Amino acid sequence: MKQFTCVQDIGDLKQAVADALEIKKDRFRYTELGKNKTLLMIFFNSSLRTRLSTQKAGMNLGMNTMVLDVNQGAWKLETERGVIMDGDKPEHLLEAIPVMGCYCDIIGVRSFARFESKEEDYDEKLLSQFIQYSGRPIFSMEASTRHPLQSYADLITIEEYKKTARPKVVLSWAPHPKPLPQAVANSFAEWMNATDYDFVITHPEGYELDPVFVGKAKVEYDQRKAFEGADFIYAKNWSAYTDPNYGKVINTDRAWTVDTEKMALTNNAYFMHCLPVRRNMIVTDDVIESPQSIVIPEAANREISAQAVLKKILESL
Ligand code: CP
Fold this sequence. Notes:
The structure is a single chain. By secondary structure, the chain is of the alpha/beta class. The chain has 13 helices and twelve strands. Strand 9, helix 9 (211-214) and strand 10 form a beta-alpha-beta unit. Helix 7 packs across helix 8. The longest helix has 21 residues, at 295-315. It is globular, with a radius of gyration of 20 Å.
């Protein structure tokens, strides 16, 4: 595998889950695979889980790992070609990317949607530049439109906890005070659509996702109706995708917060969230602390999904 940016890159999903569960049984089985190989993780945005789990995954495979926080200590980067660089950005991405490629074997990139241009965000301009100019395999650690390492971990978690072959999985919008990208929701939808699960998306009017990601999912505007009989509730906030509100918060209605009353409508569903989560906005204390909350095992599976992806890339070097 030469790049990992979306569900298609991982190939057959059943095999991907089997590979991940095999790694989980013995995560130190392949420590020779990454010997003398260097993983560079580049963060344009903050992270807790992705940073630690991916670094740990690289170490499990015997890799050397380096982390660059672009906004803390590196030169400010110009990203536009043709700009006269007489401002506060002393380095251009078009030199910085191939230079970074000189020092490593695999590069992970985190770069969120900037909400300056929907077209640029949905073209994945920055990630594409890394793919084009680094000379190294690139994997996404959350880009503008997708968070595939998260979705892979989510899939592993659902497979571990599901009680029926074809569970009902509900992606529910929930309120948040600040505009968040659609990446986690898009990506979760993309991966769920690649399974045979009964997949439902619920959100207030105005929060419709890109139809490319909604795919064959059922969209239900009544959150309570969507929750009926659900086996998994996956809560997430996202800002508006549709014009003219792209990247805006148009509703912070706490009637959409996931609480015990709504969870009681489900088939004793498990509660999932990618974290970090704003308690009592997205989900109440009671729900996230309940036995049905699997947010910690879900986060733990980030190490496994990252290791499965890195293993596949290392095998292709
Ligand atoms: N879920 C997730 O990607 O967490 P971080 O933003 O902390 O990496």
